[in-house]
Amino acid sequence: MAELVRDRGLVLQTQDHAETDLIVSLLTEGRGKLEILAKGARRLERTWGAALDLLNLAEIVYYRRRSGLHLLREASLLRSFPKIRQDLSRLEAGLSLAQWAKDLVPRELPDPRPFRLTLSFFSALEGNGAPEVLLCAYKFRLLTILGYRPVLSGCLSCGGKEKLAWSADRGGLLCRDCGGTGEEVPPRVWRAMEALLRLPLAALNHLHIPKEDLETIDAMLAAFRAAQVAR
Fold first, then answer.
1. CATH of 82-229, one of 3.50.50.60, 3.40.50.720, 1.20.1440.120, 3.20.20.150
2. Angstrom distance (rounded) from CA 107 to CA 190
3. pLDDT category of residue 231 using cuts at 50, 70 and 90
4. Does residue 172 carry a pLDDT above 70?
5. At how many degrees (to 10) do helices 131-145 and 211-229 cross?
6. pLDDT by residue (tens digit) across 97-113?
């Protein structure tokens, strides 16, 4: 018999299914990422269908099945983050944040940290902080929670802080003497990366990083994710 479960979840993605159903990808507090079938969710008379809009925080009750998709019984809206939806740059950051969570958080992982981290950054995006800064910080912290924390405080081999390059496959900064290759990472960039990872969330609202440095950091994060997570 299927187990009836109550949980909170952030809607990461929805996909039309059959005539009136939805397949909903949620990042939940109790079970990590879940794929749930919401039968009839697209019918106008289904008042809880709106709770399953993208980026919403919802309370869900579902039947947990041993195989196949879980089956939604009911959903209620807890929070919709309207300020994210009203600003294009914040919406783009929120969607990218949701995509990272969908791609990286394992299914059925009974660890509340990815959910709580993602919820805290959705809340931060409703504030005054720069969305690009918040998004980069989220990516660093999600990778860390999932066991892929990059070495940012100096050379990952000797600890040195001179002539550092980015070694995505080795796991962080690597100096020339220890085999680091490629373009050298300026001190202001790797110090900004360290701040993105370590500063309290409230302090990120006051962190200024030049646009070109953020673009460099984002490219380094993409290379790191490809090298580390794909293993």
1. 1.20.1440.120
2. 32
3. low
4. yes
5. 20
6. 999 999 999 998 889 99
